[in-house]
Amino acid sequence: MTRWAQKTTVEEVLAQLDHAPEEMRIRQHAVEHPFGTIKAWMGVTHFLTRIIKRVDTEMGLHVLPYNMKRVIKHPGSEQLIVAFHFFHMTSGWAQRIRSREHTFLP
Length: 106
Description:
The chain has helices spanning 7-19, 21-41, 52-73, 77-90, 92-99. By secondary structure, it is mostly helical. Helix 1 packs across helix 2. Helices cover 74% and strands 0% of the residues.
């Protein structure tokens, strides 16, 4: 007989929720909005991929712009955007691309 490694943790969390069901309601309100927004961005469709690793990647591709949009809208994000731009312009990758720009011209 085997037992799932996280079974004890799941049982502890369920026991805590039995003693404080209002915490679960608060968590649902905090979590439902992001997932509803992401689902709307996806066009209220199912995942296009089937294997869990690919679904994880697809979900990550939806979550990344959601998080970036939230960061950009956050007050004081101008400094972060300047830092991203500076990092991009000074990184070795950007310099290599700039040095090869002439190869992309017809």
